[in-house]
Amino acid sequence: MRHLANEHTTAHIDPKKGFRIHLLVFVLSIPAIWTIWFLTDRTYLWPLWQTGAWAVGLLFHYLGVFIFKNRNK
User: Fold this and answer.
1) What's the rounded Cα separation, in Å, for the pair 57 and 50?
2) 12-57 pLDDT tens trace
3) Sequence spans of domains, the chain
4) Cα torsion for 41, 36, 60, 20, to the nearest 10°?
5) DSSP string over 11-73
6) What is the pTM of this model?
7) Distance between CA atoms of 36 and 24, rounded to whole angstroms?
8) Cβ atoms 62, 19 nearer than 8 A
9) pLDDT of the residue at 70
């Protein structure tokens, strides 16, 4: 009987697929955040912080997957 705990394998995660998932979640979530802001108190533009921070994270994810892809090997 094989014991899975003794196997030292790691799951291969495709970086391009990971980025596409990240981008999809961003594209679906940001309009929802802005809609919540629009339907509630609009005195402070708080979704701007989430959108900007997430966009910077998405930019770095893109750079890591597509631009600096050969440096990790």
Assistant:
1) 11
2) 779 999 999 999 999 999 999 999 999 998 999 999 999 999 999 9
3) 13-72
4) -170
5) ----HHHHHHHHHHHHHHHHHHHHHHHHHS--SS-THHHHHHHHHHHHHHHHIIIIISGGGG-
6) 0.76
7) 19
8) yes
9) 72
